[in-house]
Amino acid sequence: MASKPVVLSGIQPTGTLHIGNYFGAVKNYVALQDQYECFYSIVDYHAITVEHDPQELRRNTIAMAMDLLACGLDPKKCVLFVQSQVPEHTELAWILSAVTSYGDLQRMTQFKEKGEMQEFVSCGLFTYPVLQAADILIYKASKVPVGEDQLQHIELARRIARRFNSRFGEMFPEPEALLTEAPRVMSPADPTRKMSKSLGPKHYIALTEPEKSIREKIKTAVTDVGPRPEGEKSPGVANLFLLLKLTAPREIYEQFEADYAKGTLKYEPLKRTVAEYLIKTLEPIRARRAQLNESEVREILHEGATRARAVARKTLEEARERIGVGKLIA
Ligand code: TRP
Questions:
Q1: What pairs with residue 186 in β-bridges?
Q2: Mutate to test the pocket of ligand 1, among 132, 136, 154 (most ligand atoms within 8 A of CB)
Q3: Given 3-state DSSP classes, what are the helix, strand and coil percentages for the chain, each rounded to the nearest 5?
Q4: pLDDT per residue as tens digits for the range 43-63
Q5: pTM for this one?
Q6: Which of 44, 253, 290, 296 has its CA 20 to 30 A from that of 319?
Q7: What would the pLDDT profile of 160-200 be if each residue is shown by its tens digit?
Q8: What separation in Å is there between the alpha carbon of 10 and the centre of ligand 1?
Q9: How many other CB atoms are there within 10 angstroms of residue 184's CB atom?
């Protein structure tokens, strides 16, 4: 049986997905299902490394699964599961921590940035990239679809794999980041910043945002913010064009580009058109989301965890064996 390369990605249960997450990452996850053997993990054990509310984490984990399924992740084509339901990840993380350089962890920029935002900096936040490496290596994944901001973590996972292999024998393939050109959708209220939930409700459009609110957020989207160099769109206008490109038929997009080039572009029709096509694009996602019920989703996640565990258990057993803790009792 010719096996397809293995893909793994992890996504934090941050509550509902927004269109920045969708166009920037999830749409790509959906496309990858047809080419690779894909594992997609909702990484709840990563979410507890900063202060969190348990109720909210539980809710967000299910909500994330629902959003991902609504976007088109198909349990027949990929393995969708919650990280904590495959406890082998955390056990492997401990093993890998023994081949992770302390100095390397100290250099992680995400740790420095997130750490600065916390009153209490947990040890878990520091070792977060080791768990991430375990997420990847436990499936012997060779491709990891991520954004630019995760490249340092993937590079570290490679170093961890390499050190394990050289000390205990070749076992883990070195994973590679799969950097597809992911469009960076910006905040409508501040188009100099990447769309993000943490900036507040004006700064993102949720996948399940009501139509009225989508229209309102696009209508009030910031366009011009002072003088620009000749021929360069302001960030807000560029963001509207990006959304149009992602959602509208090509002719429509090109018409607006032509108007812009001629200097006859009016923001009002541009915004109206962007809102229209965005709503149209999100409609099937909204419809699928509305059809999913929680018990069905729990079932899918349970099934996903079972399939993931079958693979994870083997890798963990192999790693335990290699380091000298496996099969102590015959
Ligand atoms: N650290 C990633 C992020 O913040 C999430 C993540 C956890 C991940 N485990 C992973 C991504 C494994 C890719 C592979 O987005």
A1: 194
A2: 132
A3: 60, 10, 35
A4: 999 999 999 999 999 999 999
A5: 0.93
A6: 44
A7: 999 999 999 999 999 999 987 778 999 999 999 999 988 89
A8: 4
A9: 14
Based on the number of CB atoms within 10 Å of its own CB, is 50 exposed (0-12), middle (13-18) or buried (19 or more)? middle
Burial of 268 (0-12, 13-18, 19+ CB in 10 A): exposed
* pLDDT at position 3: 84
Domains defined along the chain, listed by start: 6-182+295-323 (3.40.50.620), 197-289 (1.10.240.10)
Which two three-digit tokens encode residue 235? 């960030």
- What are the φ/ψ torsions at residue 316 (nearest 5 degrees)? -60, -45
Average pLDDT of the chain?
A: 95
Q: How many CB atoms are located within 10 Å of the residue 211 CB?
A: 13
143 lines ligand 1 (CB under 6 A): no
Give the length of the chain.
330
